[in-house]
Amino acid sequence: PSTPASYFHLLRRQAYARPRRPLVVFTPKSMLRLRGATSDVVDFTQGRFEPVIDDARIQDPSTVKRVLLHSGKIHYDLLNEVSKRGDSGAFALVRLEQYYPLPMDQLRPVLARYPEAELMWVQEEPENQGAWPFLAVELAPQLDGRPLRLSSRPASASPATGSSKRSAAEQTALIAKALEF
Question: For residue 18, what are the CA distances in angstroms to 8, 15, 56, 100?
Answer without folding.
Answer: 18, 9, 32, 17
